[in-house]
Amino acid sequence: SYERTTKADRGSYIEIVGRVSNRLHQEELPVAFFHPKDWNGQVVIWADPAGKQSLYGPSGDPQNDVSRLLDAGMSIVGVDLLQQGEFLKDGKPPKRARKVANPRAAAAYTFGYNHALFAKRVHDLLTMVVFVRNHEEQPQAVYLVGLNGAGPWVAAARAQAGSQVTRAAIDSQKFRFGEVGDLLHPSFLPGGAKYGDLPGFLSLSAPHALWLSGEGTSPELIQAAYAATNAADALTLYNGTMPTSAAIDWLLQDRETD
Predict the structure, then answer these.
(1) pLDDT band at residue 106, thresholds of 50, 70 and 90?
(2) Cα dihedral sign for 250, 253, 256, 258?
(3) Residue 21 dihedral angles phi and psi, to the nearest 5°
(4) Is 173 left (phi over 0), alpha (psi -120 to 50) or beta?
């Protein structure tokens, strides 16, 4: 469900701020929507370490990359995942995840019973996918974007969302769970490295359209997965500079798969 707190006419688009509620799990997510008046039926869920504030530029208007999508007729959704934005008392991202009141520093005492922060953020993204997909406006396509450090969350969400996400744009920044050396690191995920690490998650995007930066030009596991599903053309690998701008270029392309 959704509760709106503010709605403002910004000329060519409507800015809406509110909260999406996952009633099953009794959770609320602060969200911001930029909805163009001339909407083309496409929605971009924008994940970022800065949460929904990443949609805005210094002046309070949509930042340049978001403006490009908005001008093309796409609706953009920003969200504060767990321990982002409105969830923070001082506005600073956590350097360590929460832990239970147990003096023994063992992963089993915390993560045998509680979801890791990484998993909770992926869960929040999936909540947003469900909300957008089932919105009364009935979007024709839903895109999931994870850049600037949000790529691993989006990769994990994309692996589970299947065809509910039309296209995904991810900059992995070559993140690896196997290199996380602290069980209270915000990116710690039990078992995350076991089956191919992040490339294993990314390979589960096949056969759906994926734009991928940060893995070089020949990530064998991911390419093999797309080849095995006869969807090699659905994988776009990028190895240049300014990945955010390049990802926006890709999203703005007209594709029959949409």
Answers:
(1) confident
(2) positive
(3) -110, 130
(4) left
